[in-house]
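Feature request, filed as a ticket because there's no other form

It would be nice if the structure record came with a short human-readable summary line next to the tokens. Right now we just get the raw output. Example of a typical job, pasted below so the devs can see what we mean:
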Amino acid sequence: MTTPRPGTAPQPGSPSADGWAGLADLDAAITQCRACPRLVAWREEVASVKRASFAHEVYWGRPVPGFGAERPAVLVVGLAPAAHGANRTGRVFTGDRSGDWLFASLHRVGLANQPTSTHLGDGLELIDTRVLAAVRCAPPQNQPTPVERDTCAPWLDAELGLVLPSVRVVVALGGFGWQAALTALGRVGAQVTVPRPKFGHGAEVVVPLPRDREVRLLGCYHPSQQNTFTGRLTETMLDDVLGRAARLRA
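Raw output as currently delivered:
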């Protein structure tokens, strides 16, 4: 197995999917990454200072691995862990309002066994679905820098390489998730057209893969408070995209 040096992310193109024993092996390596000094300092400061409403809790304060099926048909790609969400709970989209929207919708369309995601032991299971973030550490103002995005990208490549044989649909949450998903697909051998397909809510693109396979890339507004509070994203709009993914997975 190819393992990154402590304190670094793997270099682009390495490790390949064949370099890991499986997702558990990869996830364990992700949680030890300290490659981005600003993100390490921020995630650990948040975990130490805490929000008053969570002062009694022990924060995760580390990079957050993907969550869900080991052989997913649907892959959901978000931006980054929330400071007091996944950075607190240790599970992507868990314990924040974006996750409340996402998992409730996944449940409504038949891709989750329950509508809530509050903590690691809450019994949540995803059906044919895996959720992950393009950047694995919580960034200040929820805005990773381009360097941090690129430093973290090999983790996305490695995870995508492991699950790609079963994936039929990729749902990108927001423009950041769209660009990250397209770029990662290109690095693992997909044929991404130039100019690149543009992000939009409800956008759908067929992305050819090697060996006469293909995946569908679906665009969806991110279920952030900025979008859900303003009505830019409604429950119906979210259900439409995730419901389309659920139908395409068969």
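Something like this underneath would help us a lot:
The helical segments are 23-30, 37-49, 86-89, 97-108, 146-163, 174-187, 225-228, 235-248.
Confidence is low (pLDDT under 50) at residues 1-7, 11-17.
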